[in-house]
Design a protein that fits this description.
Strand content: 35-45%
Structural class: mainly beta
Shape: globular
CATH class: Mainly Beta
Largest sheet: 5 strands, antiparallel
CATH architecture: Roll
């Protein structure tokens, strides 16, 4: 299985089993753990929409799925 680390600014949906499951948000920070692993391991700090907690929340990489990626604009 191939894993992709989502870039900052990507829109994601929480899929992990938590009170935030199903909510969408935007990735603010990506924190990767550099180790020689078969798959990347990282955490995403996400600003959620519609959550009762207003601060950004950290999620493991396998707790979110991509909704839309950011578009790189060339000026």
């Amino acid at each position: 299985m191939q894993y992709i680390i989502f870039p900052v600014g990507s829109r994601v949906r929480v899929t992990g089993y938590s009170p935030f499951r199903g909510l969408r948000g935007t990735i603010l920070t990506v924190d990767t753990i550099s180790a020689e692993l078969e798959e990347p391991f990282c955490f995403y700090q996400i600003e959620l929409e519609g959550a009762y907690i207003k601060e950004p929340i950290w999620f493991e990489f396998d707790e979110v799925e991509l909704v839309t990626a950011i578009q790189n604009e060339i000026a």
